[in-house]
Amino acid sequence: MKKTLIALAVLAVSGAAVAQSTVTIGGIVEIAPYQTGTATTTVQGAGALEQQLKSTRTAGPNTWATSVLNISGTEDLGGGLSASFFTMTGLGTLPNGNANATDGGIGNRERSLSLTSKDLGTLRYGRFVSAPGTGFHAFSGAGSATLPGSSYGFSQANANGAAGLFGENNFHVSTRNYERQNNLLQFTSNAMNGFTVTVVHGRDALDNTAAANPGETKNEYTGAQLGYVAGPLSLAVGLNERKGETESVAANVRSTSNKGNLNWIGASYNFGPFALFGHHATREEKDTNAAGVTSTTNDMKITGFGISAPIGAWTLRASTYSGKDARQDTTNGGLGNADNMKLAGQQVSAVYALSKRTSLIAAAGKNEYKRDGAESTAATRKYEAKTLTVLHTF
């Protein structure tokens, strides 16, 4: 009898521990039986040169969404507090995959710890996508942030080239990133009368003594977002600022630095049979070189709209954006005020739910960066892609 009571007591304690602590494994697996894309570059000048890259691939990853493995856990600390962790790993960076990140391995995309109060909100620390940095995508109406035609690329640090041809979503931008940031501390409040507030700050520095990359590089990021939800109506405003500096190791030579901001406003309304989306975003960046000369390397404005309609097992989406990059780039080969580009993109998609977790997706998208008359020294670029994708979440 005594052994039975002891066994029951141990079982009760272990049961309580299980109830207070949970670990979850999930993620996304995407396979594209068909995808095709075209990148067209037209260089300015007499007898403009047009180059095209075309390819059709089967079973290609990351055409509609990124295949990832997520591991998360939550522990109840009592008193209305809970602690949690989250890691996200790109499946393309696992062994025998395509290494698409400099920080490979488990948790290469995101890794963070959080403390949540049921009365106040959530404090999160680590590497992740900040809410203010990319929140405008929720008001774009686009189904995919990876396929061309999405304004999500507005927040990224992609180069102007044709790398990642079939997931090309970057704008005519330089290499500053508002997407994933390191060393972030973010607080998101609980909803109060429909309002939520998010503030985030991050700072990281690397003092590199290697011959290839001498000197110290440091970055600082600050963001804030105010959101409001009332029934079918959603509104949000985001403000972001990013600063960077690279120290010169040469005597009497200035450090190079950059400063930028990304600000946006978005709204959506769900009418039931369909939902409408709209957003406006601006992004500006200035670079100061070692000679102390400051140039505007980004001065972009975009406005976008979208519509989403669920019809039985189908979800149909269409979105568009347009804008302008009025940079005055002299650091990257531009000629002062003569480097303007018109920005435009469209995306359409049809998603059919085969089951609760598996979908069949057909989609097409296009991004275009076009010279503004004879003003731009940069090339006109157009990225187009089509995909037929099977997506499974687990």
Please, could you describe this protein's structure?
This protein has 394 residues and is mainly β. It has one domain (23-393): Porin (Beta Barrel), CATH 2.40.160. It is 6% helix and 56% strand. It contains 2 helices and 17 strands. The chain has helices at 2-20, 131-134; strands at 21-42, 50-57, 68-78, 81-90, 110-117, 121-129, 180-189, 195-208, 215-230, 233-246, 256-270, 275-288, 294-311, 314-325, 341-353, 358-371, 380-393. A 16-stranded antiparallel β-barrel has the order 1-3-4-5-6-7-8-9-10-11-12-13-14-15-16-17. A hairpin with a 6-residue loop joins strand 8 and strand 9 (215-230). The model is unreliable at 1-19, 46-51, 94-103, 160-166 and 330-336 (pLDDT under 50).
Considering the chains and any ligands shown, give keywords for the structure.
6% helix; mainly beta; single chain; globular; 394 residues; 16-stranded antiparallel barrel; Porin; 2 helices
What's this, in brief?
This protein is mainly β and 394 residues long.
Shape: globular
Q: What class, by secondary structure content?
A: mainly beta
Q: What string, H for helix and E for strand, traces the elements in order? A: HEEEEEEHEEEEEEEEEEE
**What is the count of DSSP helices, taking H or I runs of 4+ residues?**
2
Helix percent reads: under 10%
Mean pLDDT across all amino acids: 81
